[in-house]
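[Q] Does anyone have a clean structure-token version of this?
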Amino acid sequence: MRRRGLAGVALLPWVGAWAAQDEAFLRAVRAGGCAVVFRHGQTVAGIGDPPGFALEACATQRNLNDEGRAQARRIGGWFAGHGLRPLAVRSSAWCRCQDTARLAFGAVEVWPPLNSTFDDAALSPAATARLREALRAIPVTGFEVWVTHQVNLSALTGRFAASGEGFVVDGAGAVRAQARL
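[A] Here you go.
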């Protein structure tokens, strides 16, 4: 019994922080006609990827750590717990994004406009334009989930996102809600 009580106390800060954003985030997703755009979960330390990394070789990239995997599971649990099913789950080709999406939602579609533009900022305007075009095409009766990188989130929303944090972005490109699950 004591063990259960201590576990509940340890969860209180996380639950309290989330509860303040939960209702607005939930309403925004349920309104439809939007994408929930997440930054991938927490990774091993570093910025960018090691020199010579390869998209087809996860071992050469900066990948999710234990907390990042736990964040992805919490994200999926939150959506499942609210009975929310995305029309599509799209991800950057980077393993940390795909792993976040798979752990949260299962199946994932790799979609190049979500790929990182960190190493080539010249790619950002075209990628952002494709994201905005796709936002306008999402039916008002549903939503999509996109998992990407900080640089892409900033280009799309003008805001910073921590690892595992997401924005509900409507068809006009406006941020309806923000939360860290």
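[Q] Thanks! Anything notable?
[A] Confidence is low (pLDDT under 50) at residues 1-17.
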